[in-house]
Each structure stands twice: as structure tokens, then as C-alpha cells.
Design brief:
Enzyme class: hydrolase
Family: Belongs to the metallophosphoesterase superfamily. Purple acid phosphatase family.
Strand content: 25-35%
EC number: 3.1.3.2
Protein name: Purple acid phosphatase
Number of helices: 6
CATH topology of the domain at 163-201 and 274-473: Purple Acid Phosphatase, chain A, domain 2
InterPro entries: Calcineurin-like_PHP (IPR004843), Metallo-depent_PP-like (IPR029052), MPP_PAP (IPR041792), PAPs-like (IPR039331), PAPs_C (IPR025733), PAPs_N (IPR015914), Purple_acid_Pase-like_N (IPR008963)
Bound molecules: fe (ii) ion
Shape: globular
């Protein structure tokens, strides 16, 4: 929703002066050279952790629920989808829940599904949406029955509002190596406690194993349970979710992902689980699909065109987009792969003043300046990115630490749109303070420790569209 203002000549002159000052400030920011970090990591790939690793431990007891994870269950955050797997028999699809740990007074019934993939048969995958939750409330919940009942808890977000503080973790391309384990541990130990993970795609990397060994989908979900059972992970589909393997007779794209990870897409009027939106705290999160059609007239295009004008920045000031294949990427790895989607949607992101776009896919870290590249017509030659304070910051954070290793080769020289880039694993936290300010920090994995290597104060594009500050004082 936009503000309408009546404009007097004096106000117009003041506004023009402000624009000039902002333009000069933007230019000066853009003229500073971007940084390519000199920090160097080992270049070898790390294999996936062995199947008998403790992080993949199956909980004890017959048919004990495993792979428990939660995600937001509706548009405003008053519902939660609880998912888990039972291996021996279907068992119960009930979730017991309540606000007192020892008195789970409510119950909700879900559904169980199984699927086959080549020579693999899944366990019983349960999904249960619990609704009508109170905002800003700690709930305890339990799945399973009898002596294999397992208990967890989560906290619902405050009712959406412009100055609601909220913290998001950002993780991408995690996989299941010892580097992945380090990244997840660093996120869990980060003193700025993330309340929800924005996950930018590529989950298990099961497809890097022979026959897309779907056992690796199971191990991955057991690995992340220690976080994903206690706070929602907001899912984005990446290319490693496609699992298209006609050589194995598997021709239905996204089959394992769709069975295992449910999202509340219908609540935002989407017709596909690959693109949808949620409100959480003071943020409006739009998830897009790099691997679904987005050309003009396609369902995703039509949905996004209708979706962006619905965002009420007076209710949710922070407009954040998640997608997998980055639009601004100066790494040699996956260079230009996001270009066709950028060409379709970038003008809308500038028009609607998207604050930040998080992407994965490239196994390195990069943060852009605020730039846009939307002036081009086939005749005018204006095909270079230019500073634009209405544009998002683009962050590539596909650096979770998966089996494929780091993307260390970068395009040279570093393009002007690239503010900071580094080939290291890590995670980030976005700490939204109020409608104008959010502190953002990327933490590299460094010799077993998390080191804050890139940080910014982001200023909201709707309420405070000044150049962001790289001030290191919080
Ligand atoms: Fe990817």
C-alpha cells in the first residue's frame, strides 16, 4: 500500500534537494571499490558425513518419529505445519500441543504419505497443520505414541506490525558434510538468536549420490531436526530438489521434495508450492521459483504481478524475496544463470522497493550494492547496472557447506555492483529492529569458529530510503 501526498512547491523543492543529496551519496557509495576478501579456505570438497554419524542418529524405540521439522502454516503466522517420518508403520498422524509443557490439551490430525523413487521406498511422511495459534506464544508439541512420544516446542511470531523486532537466520545449499554441520552449529550458537530460518534452496544433495540415493533425504532431515523442529524453516526450492532422472524412470520433477516439505502456498493465492508468500513479524517474505516457468502469462508471473501490490508496508515494512539462482553474481560459478528471471522481474522489484533478495546456488558469499539494470531497450545501449536507491541489495549465500565444495573462481575485475565477495562457508542473521533499521551480519566458518566478516545496517526502502550504512557499531 502506498502513501498519497499532496505536494506544495516548497515541499517539491525540498524533495528535489533530497533526491539530489541521495543521488550524490549513492554515487559516492558506488564509486567505492567493492571488496574481494583475501580470506582463503581449503579448496578440497568435503564428503558427506558417514551414515552412522551421530548427527544422523535414529531416535530409539519402535516406529519413533524422526526428521521432525516445522514451517509456517498460513499467511499471518498463526498456523504451523508439523512434519515427521515414521519408518516401521504408519502410526499416528496426530500432533498434541498446548502452552503448558505437561498438559498438551489440544490435538490436530494430519495425513501420512509414502512415495517410491527408483529402488527406494520412503517411510510414512506425516504433515499436520495446527491452526488458530495465539501470536507470540510458546507452544509445546508432541508426535508419536506411547513410549516413543517425542516432545518439542516452538514460539509463534508476534502479530505482524511495522515495528515488531524479529530475527531471521539465512542459510543456503547446506548439504550434509562436516562443513554443513559447522554452519548449522554456528547458526545455533549465534548470540543473535535467529527465530526463523530463511532457507534459499538445495537441501540434501541426495542427487549427488548414485541413483539419487533418497536415504540421503532422510539423513538430511535427521541432521537439521535439532533446529528445524524448534523454529520454522521457510523453504525455497533449488535445482537439487528437482530429482529429474529419466534414466532411472523418475520423470516427475521435485518428487521427493514435494512429499517431504509442505509449504502454505494456497494461503497466498499461489497455485504451486514453489512460489508463495508469508508475513512474519515486520517482514513480508516472497518465495520465488528459479526452476518453474516465469515468462509472461505463466502462473508464477501472474501470481507475482498480483502479489506485489498487496504488500502493505505500513504493516510489514520489510519486503524480502527468496529465490535460488542469483540475479547479481560475479562468481564464475553459475554466472548469468539468473539473468532471464532478472530480465522478467527486476523492474517490479525496483517499483515496489524490495529491501533484500537472498539467493543461494553459488557456493560462496556475495553482497551487492543497491543497483538496477532496467533502463535497457534494444536500441539504447543502457545495459549496465547503475546505482539505484529503490533497488534491493542482492545477497548470495549458497555457502552452507555441501558436498560440492566452494566456488572459488570469480570473474575479474570485480564488477562495480559487487560490494563484497568471498569464497567461504557460513551463515547470516538479519536482525530487524523496527520499520527503518535492520542489522545484518554474515558469519564465515573460520577454523571452527564463526567470524562476523561482512555486516551492514540496512535501511528500509519504504520508510528510510537512505544509503545503507556499513557502520560496525551495533
Ligand atoms: Fe543450486
Amino acid at each position: 500500500m502506498r502513501h498519497s501526498r499532496s505536494t506544495s512547491p516548497a515541499a517539491a523543492a525540498a524533495a528535489a534537494a533530497t533526491v539530489l543529496v541521495l543521488a550524490i551519496a549513492a554515487l559516492s557509495v558506488f564509486c567505492e571499490a567493492g571488496k574481494t576478501s583475501a580470506f582463503v579456505r581449503k579448496a578440497e570438497k568435503t564428503p558427506d558425513m558417514p551414515l552412522d554419524s551421530d548427527v544422523f542418529r535414529v531416535p530409539p524405540g519402535y516406529n519413533a518419529p524422526q526428521q521432525v521439522h516445522i514451517t509456517q502454516g498460513n499467511h499471518d503466522g498463526s498456523a504451523m505445519i508439523v512434519s515427521w517420518v515414521t519408518e516401521d508403520e504408519v502410526g499416528s498422524s496426530l500432533v498434541l500441543y498446548g502452552t503448558s509443557e505437561n498438559h498438551l490439551e489440544f490435538k490436530a490430525k494430519g495425513k501420512a504419505y509414502t512415495y517410491r523413487f527408483y529402488n527406494y521406498t520412503s517411510g510414512y511422511i506425516h504433515h499436520c497443520t495446527i491452526k488458530h495459534l495465539k501470536h507470540d506464544t510458546k507452544y509445546y508439541y508432541a508426535v508419536g505414541i506411547g513410549h516413543t512420544l517425542r516432545k518439542f516446542w516452538f514460539t509463534t511470531p508476534p502479530k505482524a506490525g511495522p515495528d515488531v523486532p524479529y530475527t531471521f537466520g539465512i542459510i543456503g545449499d547446506l548439504g550434509q558434510t562436516s562443513d554443513s554441520n559447522m554452519t548449522l552449529s554456528h547458526y545455533e550458537l549465534n548470540p543473535t538468536k535467529g527465530q526463523t530460518v530463511l532457507y534459499v534452496g538445495d537441501l540434501s544433495y541426495a542427487d549427488d549420490h548414485p541413483n539419487h540415493d533418497n536415504v540421503r533425504w532422510d539423513t538430511w532431515a535427521r541432521f537439521v531436526e535439532r533446529s528445524a523442529a524448534y523454529q520454522p524453516w521457510i523453504w525455497t526450492a533449488g535445482n537439487h530438489e528437482i530429482d529429474f532422472a529419466p534414466e532411472l524412470g523418475e520423470t516427475r520433477p521435485f518428487k521427493p521434495y514435494n512429499y517431504r516439505y509442505h509449504v502454505p502456498y494456497k494461503a497466498s493465492g499461489s497455485t504451486s508450492p514453489f512460489w508463495y508468500s508469508i508475513k512474519r513479524g515486520s517482514a513480508y517474505i516472497i518465495v520465488l521459483a528459479s526452476y518453474s516457468a516465469y515468462g509472461k502469462y505463466t502462473p508464477q508471473y501472474q501470481w507475482l504481478e498480483a502479489e506485489l501490490p498487496k504488500v502493505n508496508r505500513s504493516e510489514t515494512p520489510w519486503l524480502i524475496v527468496l529465490l535460488h539462482s542469483p540475479w547479481y553474481n560475479s562468481n564464475d560459478y553459475h554466472y548469468m544463470e539468473g539473468e532471464s528471471m532478472r530480465a522478467m522481474f527486476e523492474a517490479w522489484f525496483v517499483k515496489y522497493k524490495v529491501d533484500i533478495v537472498f539467493a543461494g546456488h553459488v557456493h560462496a558469499y556475495e553482497r551487492s550494492e543497491r543497483v538496477s539494470n532496467i533502463a535497457y531497450t534494444i536500441a539504447n545501449g543502457l545495459c549496465s547496472p547503475v546505482p539505484d536507491q529503490s533497488a534491493p541489495v542482492y545477497i548470495t549465500i549458497g555457502d552452507g557447506g555441501n558436498i560440492e565444495g566452494l566456488a572459488t573462481i570469480m570473474t575479474e575485475p570485480q564488477p562495480a555492483y559487487s560490494a563484497y565477495r568471498e569464497a567461504s562457508f557460513g551463515h547470516a542473521v538479519l536482525d530487524v529492529k523496527n520499520r527503518t533499521h535492520a542489522y545484518y551480519a554474515w558469519h564465515r566458518n573460520q577454523d571452527g569458529c564463526a567470524v562476523e566478516a561482512d555486516s551492514m545496517w540496512f535501511f528500509n526502502r519504504f520508510w528510510h530510503p537512505a544509503p545503507d550504512s556499513s557502520a560496525s557499531v551495533r
